[in-house]
Amino acid sequence: MAHIFGFDDDEDDFMTNKSPKQSFFEIARTANQNIVEKEIEKIFQRLAVAEQILEEEGKLDEIDRRIPAMSVDGTLDTLTNDIYLELMGNIVTQCE
User: Fold this and answer.
1) Is residue 46 in some structural domain?
2) How many domains does one find in the chain?
3) Cβ atoms within 10 Å, residue 64
4) Does some domain include residue 93?
5) How far apart are CA 88 and CA 23, in angstroms?
6) What is the dihedral sign for C-alpha 71, 77, 82, 84?
7) Which of 10, 70, 74, 87 is deepest in the core (most CB within 10 A)?
8) 60: how many CB neighbours lie within 10 A of its CB?
């Protein structure tokens, strides 16, 4: 798998000292672009459905109200990193 993304097998783990965001963008630049686009499109589709559900429940404005609090306590970073990691896993799995 290391050669798919331009890393040597002898290099340390490519995620060492990198955030999930940095690692995702590194992989996204080197992976098969059709796979990357497909996975990003799936995330946007999930976002669209989630927004539709929240709008139907009258809670769409709650997103913007929660962002500051979730940023302060680190929850937003954790959830965002989880999405980056999920995307990376989906891309890497399909590129193998």
Assistant:
1) yes
2) 1
3) 8
4) yes
5) 8
6) positive
7) 87
8) 14
**Per-residue confidence (pLDDT) for residue 29, from 0 to 100:** 96
> Which candidate, 33, 21, 26, places its Cα nearest to that of 7?
26
- Decide if pLDDT at 15 tops 50: yes
User: Per-residue pLDDT averaged across 41-48, rounded?
Assistant: 97
Distances, alpha carbon 46 to alpha carbons 14, 29, 40, 64, 84, in Å: 28, 23, 10, 18, 14
Report pLDDT for 14: 53
DSSP summary character for residue 11: S
pTM: 0.78
User: What is the Cα–Cα distance from 51 to 69, expressed in whole angstroms?
Assistant: 19
Whether 69 is in a domain gets the answer yes
Question: How confident is the prediction for the chain on average, in pLDDT?
Answer: 87
By residue range, what is the domain housing residue 86?
Answer: 31-96
